[in-house]
Amino acid sequence: MVLQVSALPRTVALTALLMALLTAVVQGRATTENYVYQRLFECYAFNGTQHLLDRLFYNREEFVRFDSDLGEYQAVTELGRPDAKYWNSQKDILEQMRAEVERVCRHNYELEDPLILKRQVQPKVNVSPSKKGPLQHHNLLVCHVTDFYPGSIQVRWFLNGQEETAGVVSTNLIRNGDWTFQILVMLEMMPQQGDVYTCQVEHPSLDSPVTVEWSELLSDDSLVPTFEKQGTLWLWVHSSCLLHVYPGAISNPIFLLHQLPSIALSGSNGDFLTLAKGVLRIHSSPPCQRI
C-alpha cells in the first residue's frame, strides 16, 4: 500500500487560477508578473470520522475551498465566488471530491496509524547534579529524560517520598530529529545528610512510572569497589563499613554505580553475587564484614 494524493483535475486548478486573475482585473486590482498560487489539501480524523478540506490561495489569501462536511465548494472571499459557483454546477467534479475522503484521507490514515500514531519508544532517564558541591549548599538537580515517543510525558520530583513542586524548572519539549524527544526537568535543592531525591517519569510507552533516585551518598567518590584477593569483594562507604550486595531489588537506598563493569563471583559464604552496570540495591551488613 502507498500513500494517495488528491486527484483534483488540472483543469480545475487552472480554472481557479484564471478566475482569480480575471476577477482581480474586473475588480480593478493591480496585477503583476509575479504571484503566488497555492493549494492546501487537509485531512482531519476524529472519533473514526474523516474530514477533508481542499483550500486554494492567491497571493497567500484563501479565496475558495471544498468542505467534505458540506459536500460542495465555498467562496471564502469575493474572489472565489465565480469558482465556487462553477464547480458546484459540475457534478463530476463534486463526486470526485467527495470520493477523496475515502480514497485519500481514510486510506492514508489507516496506512500511517500503526507506523506513526501508535508508535511508542520508552524514555531513558538520568539524574545528576549540575555541579559538585558540599552538603547544605544550593545546587540544581537535573532529570534528563530522552529518546522517547510520543511527546506527551510527565516528570515529577520527590524528596524523601514527598512531591516537590516549588523550585521545579523545565525546558520545552526538544526534538531530537529522529522522531524522538528529550526534556530536562530541574529541581533547586539544598541536600541534607540522608536526603533521597527521586525523579518519576510517566509516559504512554510505560506500564508503570519509572523512578530514578539520587542522594549525596550516590554521588560520593568514596563509594569505590576494590578487589583484594581472588573471590573477595570489598565495598567501602566513607572508609568505615562494608555493604552486602545482592542481585535484584531488596531495599533502599539505590546506588547508581555507573562505572562498574559486569561482574559475577562467589562470596566467601557460598552465595552467588552479581554486580551489573546500572542500578544495584544495597542492604547494610554488620560493620566491616567481608563478603
From TrEMBL:
Entry-linked SUPFAM superfamilies: Immunoglobulin, MHC antigen-recognition domain
Source superkingdom: Eukaryota
User: From which residue to which does the signal peptide run?
Assistant: 1-28
Q: Which InterPro entries match?
A: Ig-like_dom (IPR007110), Ig-like_dom_sf (IPR036179), Ig-like_fold (IPR013783), Ig/MHC_CS (IPR003006), Ig_C1-set (IPR003597), MHC/Immunoglobulin (IPR050160), MHC_I/II-like_Ag-recog (IPR011162), MHC_II_a/b_N (IPR014745)
Annotated compartments: Endosome membrane; Lysosome membrane
Q: Name one GO molecular function term.
A: peptide antigen binding
Tell me a GO cellular component: lysosomal membrane
Membrane topology, from the record: Single-pass type I membrane protein
Query: What Gene3D superfamilies does UniProt report for this protein, alphabetically?
Result: Class II Histocompatibility Antigen, M Beta Chain, Chain B, domain 1, Immunoglobulins
The UniProt entry's GO biological process terms, in alphabetical order, are: adaptive immune response; antigen processing and presentation of exogenous peptide antigen via MHC class II; antigen processing and presentation of peptide antigen via MHC class I; positive regulation of T cell proliferation; positive regulation of type II interferon production; T cell receptor signaling pathway
| Ranges for domain Ig-like | 123-211
Q: Which UniProt key words apply to this protein? A: Adaptive immunity, Endosome, Glycoprotein, Immunity, Lysosome, Membrane, MHC I, MHC II, Signal, Transmembrane, Transmembrane helix
Give the protein's recorded name: Major histocompatibility complex, class II, DP beta 1
The primary gene name is: HLA-DPB1
